[in-house]
Amino acid sequence: MTRQSSEAADAALHEQQVVEFLRHHPDLLRRHPDLLAELNIPHAAGTGAVSLVERQVSRLREQREEMRHRLDELYALARDNESLALQFHQLVLDLLSAREPTAVAEALERDLHRDCGADAVALRLYPAGEHHIPDHLIGPRGADRNRLERIFAAPNPVCGRLDAEIGALIFGDGGEAMVSAALIPLPLRGRSLGLLAVGSTDPERFRAGQGTLFLEQLGEAAAAALHPHLAG
């Protein structure tokens, strides 16, 4: 037997093995639909059944729709990121134009309500040294401050569910309705000036483990705006 005839016999044997395997596993293509995109199958018209070609085309259409859906999600994410960048830019400009702590607090509250859908915004400060800070911006003192010490001492923003009593301490009147919050430290030269809190009545608005890069940048921008008024 020549080499070519031997190879032909081996190929025929392997093909027969594949045929027998498919006979015993008629649901193979259903379990591996990705194979349909790789097979070269002639269309058998007039059989009255859905052909493999039609299944292959259907699968390719599904893949195309999946890709289109993913692209739409990427476009939406890009638009959201662009919108967020513009909003943050405007907030920084507003903070730079603030001439005293109350104006900083008002800019934060106005912009975060408008652009981030915040239900409550609170700025709570603990300035070093003697500085004239309005009472409504000073954080809780005494035993109430001790209860919040862990929050004020956190090095990074914390998101998640908020206890009603803690919400009232941070946000004041109506704070017990804030069931989730982002608690953002205001870092300055290795210490924190205080806390910026953003609250929501939606328990899923701020969740533990969500990304905090924007919140960190927000805290740094707010601290920079407050620095001239609070640095000791």
From TrEMBL:
Keywords in alphabetical order: Coiled coil
Superkingdom assignment: Bacteria
Pfam families noted in UniProt: DUF484
Keyword Cell membrane listed: no
Coiled coil: 50-77
InterPro entries documented for this protein: DUF484, GAF-like_dom_sf
Keyword Transport: no
Protein name per the record: Phytochrome sensor protein
Organism: Thiohalospira halophila DSM 15071
Lineage, opening ranks: Bacteria, Pseudomonadati, Pseudomonadota, Gammaproteobacteria, Thiohalospirales
